[in-house]
Inverse folding.
């Protein structure tokens, strides 16, 4: 309910990306999400943060409709994924990408096949040759060409992560869920990934990220959701979160960001400096430029 | 591994196509073998009971399957009508005066209808006509007229059981003739009361009575043999119970009696060779009966079956009791 | 007492719940199976690989097993049955043993042991690695893409392996009867052809199809029952195989009963 109170920005009347109502998820006795209600606007890059095991990944999986909550309802772009007909769900998936924490690449396929499958499912108007060319071009951009014939198990953790990111974005989604996109990967690859994310955001893709990456958060997140023990501590525009009077929020942000960021700056200063402007980009550049 | 995955389509294709070819080959071989495509001709026969008759039952001729039973139905006049098909290649074996015999195996397996063809000069029988059953009035008549070419087949137990009533009737008849003979002898003795002959004859008279009662026993035993064959279908039947030591004893007694009679006949040999013949035949019959029992005791489910017996040399040529 | 009742009640609810879940799973599989035959099939490749792993790679085991089994049956038959004057029954016994009974069930057992575990383990690992969720996120129905091709692949494989089992089994019998009893090929084929009925072949094929469906459904179901941890994978794999075995035996008995009714 507090989230409802804090989304005073709804005066701007952005269409909702995501609406969670009293969502509860339990793993055996352990309650991963405890009656979470949350609304995220479309077109606003959101970072979900919190200490380990606070339910960030679970929240993201629920939001993307990958996990059926034990109670409560989830609406993504106004569609209840649990009840919507197959066709509707498939249409929605077409516009959505999900980068898993550990990649979750399909181990029985090569990298190329991993990247091809989304195109095979959703772009059947393309010929197989066109699909292959698309994959090759994208791979070239991420410097993955030499890995295309390998199986995921033959890649490093970072390599897998990068491929997973490419797989999630190969369809040029409108909404991108990313779970710890920059962990495990080397700084150079992380930089490639960050710049690609920035480009996507600029072209109108809504990104919801679970992250410890201070730089990523600072540069892109217009909105922060802070979780603790399965509950939403705060859900607001970044500048408001940074200036909140809640000491616990500051504690968590400091812990979480400094833990992963590895450099010794004042995190909040960085956040402050990198704050996005008040007017987030809303326009959607949905066209897939990468296709023939 | 890599090879397999790269050529998985080809390998799987080969796997599937080979299996399909094998299936088709199987079915074609089956079809040729079971002559699905051959023309079949229908005949029918009538039995008193449908026991042992099932659709699919083989019809054989001299051990070869020439057709099979298509249907078994009860008609309105309470006979069992059995329709059978005979394949085109064997149609010329079905001639006038042919008779069908149902053969059941005591073990309950491998039975079937056996065709006994009419004598060589008989005309072929057109399809859709009746082939009389072995036990029917028509079948009996054909057999008695000697128009049927009977070929014994099936196993020894079946044959013996089939023949048992005839054997017993022969024994009975032999015994009756023996009594007649003894009666004549006694009359002779009464005419000439001196000497050893009367005593012997009185003795023989008594023996004949004894023989008769024993034969009755054997006859009732034969009655028991029918249910016995039924029980044989269940391996743990009452075989052992029935074929107890008393049977052996009975047979032993019959044998002894016969020996007495033989001694008697030795006495009367010069004038009445028929007695000898009669005794030989009785003995033969009894031995056959003995074999039946022996065979049953050596239950074929447990061991060896019946040893074939060498035919005993008859002591005479021909036997005509009516001329006695 | 109340505690006992409570436990019983809870257990009943759990069992009933798992039955409902399994039934729902089967219905969804059936729905996707229909869609597979009428819709687009990106899963064709999965199907090919499944037949490769389940069918082609089990062929060697099946061949060895059925060759030796056919040999054993004919040796026993030829040494025992003529004692009763029923040598011809040897072929009937061969057909009953190889074609009607052991062919389907032994192929079923072997496939359950080889591919049942493989499928349950593979799907379980996919769940733990979140590969299933990756399929869902990509808009691929995991039932359609993972379960249906496995169902078809395993069923087709069991049916084809059963054909090979029959061929090898009957060939094994011939290879033995030739030197021991001097049975010529033509005589063997004729005798066999006389007792082998089309309904034997059909019954055998039907059985193996049913067994294939059972193996695929049970192993996929158990594989997908894995929730989070990799320690659940071997447990579910074992459960899948043992459940397959029990179901195969029971269903085989049922089908044999139906055959003779």
């Amino acid at each position: 309910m507090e989230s409802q109170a804090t989304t005073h920005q709804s005066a701007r009347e952005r269409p909702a990306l995501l609406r969670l109502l009293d969502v509860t998820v339990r793993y055996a006795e352990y309650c991963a999400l405890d009656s979470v209600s949350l609304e995220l606007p479309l077109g606003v890059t959101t970072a979900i943060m919190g200490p380990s095991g606070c339910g960030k990944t679970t929240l993201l999986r629920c939001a993307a409709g990958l996990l059926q909550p034990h109670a409560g309802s989830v609406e993504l772009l106004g569609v209840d994924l649990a009840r919507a007909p197959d066709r509707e769900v498939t249409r929605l998936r077409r516009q959505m990408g999900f980068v898993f924490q550990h990649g979750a690449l399909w181990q029985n396929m090569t990298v190329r096949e991993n990247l091809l499958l989304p195109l095979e499912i959703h772009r059947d108007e393309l010929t197989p040759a066109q699909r292959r060319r698309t994959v090759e071009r994208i791979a070239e951009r991420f410097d993955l060409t030499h890995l295309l014939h390998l199986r995921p198990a033959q890649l490093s953790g970072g390599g897998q992560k990068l491929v997973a990111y490419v797989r999630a974005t190969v369809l040029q989604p409108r909404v991108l869920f990313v779970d710890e996109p920059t962990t495990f990967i080397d700084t150079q690859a992380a930089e490639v990934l960050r710049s690609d994310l920035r480009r996507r955001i600029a072209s109108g893709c809504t990104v919801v990220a679970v992250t410890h990456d201070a730089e990523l958060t600072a540069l892109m997140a217009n909105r922060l959701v802070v979780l603790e023990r399965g509950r939403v501590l705060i859900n607001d525009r970044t500048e408001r979160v940074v200036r909140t009077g809640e000491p616990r929020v500051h504690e968590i942000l400091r812990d979480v960001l400094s833990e992963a960021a590895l450099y010794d700056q004042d995190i909040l200063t960085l956040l402050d400096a990198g704050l996005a402007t008040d007017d987030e980009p809303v326009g959607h550049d949905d066209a897939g430029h990468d296709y023939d | 591994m890599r090879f397999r995955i790269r050529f998985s389509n080809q390998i799987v294709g080969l796997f599937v196509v080979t299996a399909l070819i094998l299936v088709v080959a199987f079915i074609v071989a089956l079809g040729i073998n079971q002559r699905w495509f051959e023309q079949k001709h229908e005949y029918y026969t009538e039995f008193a009971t449908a026991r042992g008759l099932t659709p699919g039952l083989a019809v054989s001729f001299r051990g070869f399957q020439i057709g099979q039973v298509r249907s078994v139905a009860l008609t309105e006049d309470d006979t069992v009508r059995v329709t059978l098909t005979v394949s085109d290649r064997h149609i010329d074996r079905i001639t006038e005066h042919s008779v069908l015999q149902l053969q059941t195996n005591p073990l309950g397996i491998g039975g079937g209808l056996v065709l006994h063809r009419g004598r060589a000069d008989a005309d072929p029988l057109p399809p859709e006509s009746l082939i009389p059953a072995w036990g029917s009035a028509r079948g009996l008549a054909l057999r008695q007229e000697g128009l049927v070419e009977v070929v014994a087949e099936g196993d020894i137990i079946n044959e013996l059981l089939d023949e048992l009533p005839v054997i017993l009737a022969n024994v009975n008849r032999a015994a009756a003739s023996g009594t007649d003979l003894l009666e004549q002898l006694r009359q002779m003795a009464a005419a000439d009361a001196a000497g050893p002959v009367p005593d012997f004859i009185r003795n023989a008279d008594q023996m004949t009575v004894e023989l008769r009662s024993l034969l009755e026993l054997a006859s009732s035993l034969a009655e028991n043999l029918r249910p016995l064959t039924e029980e044989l279908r269940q391996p743990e039947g009452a075989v052992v119970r029935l074929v107890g030591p008393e049977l052996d004893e009975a047979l032993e007694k019959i044998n002894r009696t016969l020996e007495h009679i033989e001694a008697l006949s030795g006495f009367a040999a010069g004038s009445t060779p028929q007695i000898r013949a009669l005794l030989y035949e009785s003995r033969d019959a009894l031995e056959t009966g003995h074999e039946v029992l022996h065979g049953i005791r050596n239950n074929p489910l447990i061991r060896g079956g019946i040893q074939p017996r060498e035919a005993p040399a008859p002591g005479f040529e021909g036997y005509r009791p009516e001329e006695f | 007492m109340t505690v006992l009742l409570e436990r019983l009640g809870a257990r009943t609810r759990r069992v009933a719940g798992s039955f409902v879940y399994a039934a729902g799973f089967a219905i969804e599989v059936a729905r996707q199976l229909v869609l597979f035959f009428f819709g687009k099939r990106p899963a064709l490749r999965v199907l090919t690989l499944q037949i490769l792993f389940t069918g082609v790679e089990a062929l060697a085991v099946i061949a060895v097993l059925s060759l030796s089994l056919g040999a054993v049956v004919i040796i026993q038959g030829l040494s025992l049955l003529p004692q009763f004057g029923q040598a011809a029954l040897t072929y009937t016994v061969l057909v009953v043993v190889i074609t009607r009974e052991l062919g389907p069930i032994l192929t079923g057992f072997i496939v359950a042991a080889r591919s049942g575990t493989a499928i349950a383990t593979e799907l379980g690992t996919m769940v733990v690695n979140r590969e299933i969720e990756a399929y869902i996120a990509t808009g691929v129905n995991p039932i359609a893409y993972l379960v249906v091709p496995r169902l078809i692949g395993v069923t087709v494989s069991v049916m084809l392996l059963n054909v090979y089992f029959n061929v090898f089994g009957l060939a094994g019998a011939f290879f033995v009867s030739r030197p021991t009893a001097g049975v010529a090929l033509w005589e063997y084929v004729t005798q066999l052809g006389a007792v082998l009925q089309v309904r034997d072949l059909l019954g055998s094929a039907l059985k193996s199809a049913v067994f294939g469906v059972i193996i695929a459904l049970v192993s996929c179901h158990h594989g997908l029952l894995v929730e989070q941890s990799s320690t659940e994978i071997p447990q579910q794999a074992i459960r899948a195989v043992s459940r397959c075995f029990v179901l195969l035996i029971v269903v085989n008995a049922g089908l044999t009963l139906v055959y003779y009714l």
